[in-house]
Amino acid sequence: MKNNKLAGVIKKSLLVILAASQQLSYAQNSGPARLVSYVKPLIGTGAVDKNSLSGSNFPGATVPFGFVQLSPDTQDGPDDPASGYDYNDKTIVGFSHTHLSGTGVSDLFDVLLMPTTGELKTEPGNAEQKGSGYRSAYTHGEETAGPGYYSVMLKDYGIKAELTSTVHVGMHRYTFPQNSQSHILIDLNHSLNKKRDYWACKIIGAEIRVIDQHTIEGYRIITGWAKLRKVYFHAEFSKPFDSATLVSGSSQHRDLSVINGSNLKAALNFNTTDNEQVLVKVALSPVSMENARQNLSVELPGWDFDRVSTQSSNKWETELSKIKIDGTQTQKEIFYTGLYHAFTQPNNIADVNGDYQATDLSIANAPDKAHYSTFSLWDTYRAAHPLYTLVQSEKTAAFINSMMRQYTSYGYLPIWQLWGDENYCMIGNHAIPVIVDAAFKGIKGFDVEKAYQAVKASLLTDHPGSPFSTWEKYQYIPEDIQSQSVSITLETAYDDWCVAQLAKKLNKTDDYNRFIKRSEFYRNLYNTKTGFFQAKKKDGNWLEPFNPLQYGGNGGNPYTEGNAWQYFWYVPQNVEGLIGLVGGDAAFNAKLDQFFTLEDKSAEKNGNASGFIGQYAHGNEPSHHIAYLYDYSGQPWKTQMYVSRILNTLYNNSSSGYAGNEDCGQMSAWYIFSAMGFYPVNPANGVYAIGSPVLKHAEIPVADGKTFTVDVNNPGAANPYIQSVKLNGKPYHKTYITQGDIVSGSRLEFAMGAKPNKAWGTKPEDKPPVWGY
Amino acid sequence: MKNNKLAGVIKKSLLVILAASQQLSYAQNSGPARLVSYVKPLIGTGAVDKNSLSGSNFPGATVPFGFVQLSPDTQDGPDDPASGYDYNDKTIVGFSHTHLSGTGVSDLFDVLLMPTTGELKTEPGNAEQKGSGYRSAYTHGEETAGPGYYSVMLKDYGIKAELTSTVHVGMHRYTFPQNSQSHILIDLNHSLNKKRDYWACKIIGAEIRVIDQHTIEGYRIITGWAKLRKVYFHAEFSKPFDSATLVSGSSQHRDLSVINGSNLKAALNFNTTDNEQVLVKVALSPVSMENARQNLSVELPGWDFDRVSTQSSNKWETELSKIKIDGTQTQKEIFYTGLYHAFTQPNNIADVNGDYQATDLSIANAPDKAHYSTFSLWDTYRAAHPLYTLVQSEKTAAFINSMMRQYTSYGYLPIWQLWGDENYCMIGNHAIPVIVDAAFKGIKGFDVEKAYQAVKASLLTDHPGSPFSTWEKYQYIPEDIQSQSVSITLETAYDDWCVAQLAKKLNKTDDYNRFIKRSEFYRNLYNTKTGFFQAKKKDGNWLEPFNPLQYGGNGGNPYTEGNAWQYFWYVPQNVEGLIGLVGGDAAFNAKLDQFFTLEDKSAEKNGNASGFIGQYAHGNEPSHHIAYLYDYSGQPWKTQMYVSRILNTLYNNSSSGYAGNEDCGQMSAWYIFSAMGFYPVNPANGVYAIGSPVLKHAEIPVADGKTFTVDVNNPGAANPYIQSVKLNGKPYHKTYITQGDIVSGSRLEFAMGAKPNKAWGTKPEDKPPVWGY
After folding, report:
1. Could you say which of 2.60.40.10, 3.40.50.300, 3.30.300.130, 2.70.98.10 is the CATH number of the domain covering B55-320?
2. Which positions carry the signal peptide feature in this UniProt record (chains A, B) (predicted)?
């Protein structure tokens, strides 16, 4: 009894700690912290000030690679950020079930739910109006986001909203105040405004049906960035609603059980007691209502929200455990949130029975019940897919088999595929390095010979942005035939090189000769007078005037989302050849120095270029390999300097933790590799250039029970420079490791310091080679 | 041997006769003429002068109720006539595989083929350009159209094109001249221009794939009047093409085997000898490429064009034989072409395996391998569906079962359904009279109790154009809530009456009372001061100003495609009640007299109003029953006069044979009934009002081996008036017959004359009753 008071204090303290830990996503649990505790889904969701950037990520609930990604939207017609959620917005309009993570173009946002209280608005506006007409203030102090769980207090209504999910089902738990007019609104018109020039969204058809007082069904058919998406939903409520109000455009209906149209909303009306919880399960299917019902019954039969949330968290824990690290709390948060973002897609868009919408928009069935999409390949071939080969090798095969289905239908592999549907966003054919890389890494589960036919056909079949008959005829892409010609020339030469390597492995000598020749066509656009890759016209003359600082966007200019400075470095298949073009290591290093220090004095930058160090723009992918290029030209300490600077200044654990769009895992994968000390400059040659590790320790379980480990002595922003390296206990001077080093379970040790060791890694034989196998 | 010369002459004569008969569609065969010989598909395909009208029919090849309807298109972006073919156009742009017959809105036109010779055009124009860029002159002298067969000489290229089809497959036979540059073009961008305000067409995705030198496959996904159509095709060529040129927008590709995009074309290139025939079979599926292949292999495995054409002709002969008539050659041509047009749709849009695109745009399977669509119900419930109940009773059940699938998905029956997809064109819910009529006629093969639930729900579920909560609240449709309010009020009252009758039959007394009350709501819009049905506002006041001659279109006015004069007569469920409203027979007859003689002095007519006799406009459906109303008010000889006049002056066997859009069989069905002497003024009460038969004889096989026959003494335009009637040999004075008279196999005999017999049919008991069972 005498300890009562103390016990009370202890209890109170524990409560404070628990509350705090909950807000930190259980970071302070006893025992070794669960890795999920480091994941902060709010990272990358909004710029902290007008000069910083968002990653365009969303904070809501998803399982790894899940179809349903249930997240709050802060705008009625979400356009920018494309995730639908901006950390700086003060209100939430509801929770929709599908999202894109880190993209530059918005789409999805299917089946928005919003709980409210009070009088229903009687004037829902005109047929074009976006949004449910309802929004609520919220604060980040009353918001929690973790793997598989999101919650927020909707202050206008006094409702706590909690979200979790399975692969196909979103689960909502709304804690209402006492109110005789509580509502859960459903908005099927929530999507990007149809007024966008490209990929304008238009709802082709929609329906909401009241099955009984516990059940709503419906669908919407929509064309947008994905040409055609059919989204069927089946929603079940834990408490019977008293009535349903169905709204089509500007007309409201009570006592109606079904409504069809293009702009549909519904309000399910309840009488709630104080703190009464109403749960909703919303299952989606891209194929049919029947499949939506089946997805629900298979995946989420009961009403135990906490169990579903725990199961989701456990799934994440399993996936995150594929890399274990030691480092600072901040590093762990950036690293595991990065891994979380990398595993947020590609998404399995097949139903539990394997049905999916095929590339030709018919309905097909996947025997392995998996069809992956959301392939932002221009971004993700660089480091995200190489990361998947290490820690998601089974899924890598499934990704490839899914991409192969597009080849079978279209005749070429995906360029940018969303919801199983090619949208021709960006340039290049970078499913090719993904597949060739997987083939050389020995990923099991796909047919290499068939895959070879696919990568070859993808480089011989003319298609939008890829005029290959022009390519072989001119041996460069003429800007007056195909815009973005310099970028396409450079990137296609790389894809050609990849196919050449696989041709060689498969003893297809003629093919090898054809593609290896094409892989050197980049030389045809090198202007020795300016020292840049420049656009030529079909008559062979340079396109004038030329300004190496001038940006292009996505058409109308020779450079894609960048300028001649940023594209100069894109010859990952032959860096030595590139160095030769400018006259050797010294000239190359001088050019790199200028690149990293030249402040842009030109006019408008491309909106995707951000995170600058001189002309280097870490916020967009064309720059991602460039800091590592000093390894190839004898000054690896400069690679170390810039990589360290990028890791320490262009990533953080705030809502503006990325220097630009996170791009479906690519921006995160750059961090994950670089923080461990190496990066795949050429994502398909089995070579990783060494940079500047910032973590204390990292370990990756590899095949046969082995573990690849990295240990770093004296890491930190103040110690960017490698003093020495050991590989498996032996001094190591090379500025690279190989895939073989990783999969054999090597131990890599770094000793870091504040001053460069200019003796390390600078001999000619220390340079990363063209081929790592 | 001596007879050789004579034999030669006879042979030559026979050849001439055969050639002539072929051009007349085998009209002169020995023995009784085949009924197909009377079918002239060119009827209704184009106005003969600028003051006449087309039926908007197409002349091409189809089997009865076929999915593929393969026909020449004379315009690149066909809009008006909606069939794609205008008899007055001098050039043909190609042959597409799907068409609408007689509608006022255009859509379909899938997979256009065009044979040409000469240099391929190297500049295919911009991405928006419609058409293959090729067209050829033709003449009607070198054009033949018959059931299941169409041919035309393409004069620009010297190519004879012949077409035939099965349900899912179009078969082309092109006879080429000698040419090293012969081509068959495929255009997947051929469709209505996307610039239309409503139901704008947009191709969501398309593909053309060269499988081998004999085979092309592809698809297009398009949104238009039908919200979403997926059209997969598999095409086989009898002769291997030497090469294929694939075109996407403005870029041409040779040596490419597959192309994807939205504006796709292909040229298959041949070297042909003189008179060389190249055949093409194109199978369509609305579900998948695999199904298109299966449709071809099941329906059309060989290459015998003539056999396919003969089989199609035989199918038509079987269907046309369901009514046998005697009359003049012209009457037979109008009559059987009308029957042909009536059987051109609804179309079975299911694949041979039963797969079809369901109303909710998922893929479903019909156990009976049939899913019918193209339900232009505002038109066809009046006489086309009543005709189907008599001569297509099995299909009537299939039509109803198909419509029921929309009810299951949408909660209400089709209004205007195309390609399985509701487009909410026109007003009313006239699947209801179709189903109620079929139920009372005892059509087997559908579940009457379920159908009752559907017709009831269709009148209680608010949906576009049908605000039923408003209906019961105001007991009329207020124009300030729902435009076209007078027309909707009148037509909904009729639908209500139909449901009331079925409720009574099924002993649902409460429902009966509810709907029979609603069926009299038309009275609430009758303005005793003007003598017209007029629009009221929700405050109960009349909408002013009122001009009974002013036309409405499809919104923005109380009247639908007509004026207050034309809509005055729409109380088919209670003509006696209507007569009472105006004060009795004399006033009613005077008003009818005025209606048929009042020349319109107002401003612009609605584009659908045509075929005028005073205010009567036979070219559009609101007028169709009006000439028969004198039967109800004691002056049947005026019905006879006007019906005779309509039959003899507003139908002919030219390309401008209809007084307006043929409307999916309705305009033809009016002729078919009226020419036999009777018409279903109320299409669901089992009563047919007697008009003025123009045929000499008609017989319809009915159940149990019985035959209903009509014999007419002294028919003809000069003898419009009934002198006397016998039913089963007994004098008959009633101005109507019943469904029972027909199905019992009665014999109806008319004696006609030049002067009215005003004693016949004028007693009160001679008037058509409200109920015929």
Report:
1. 2.70.98.10
2. 1-27
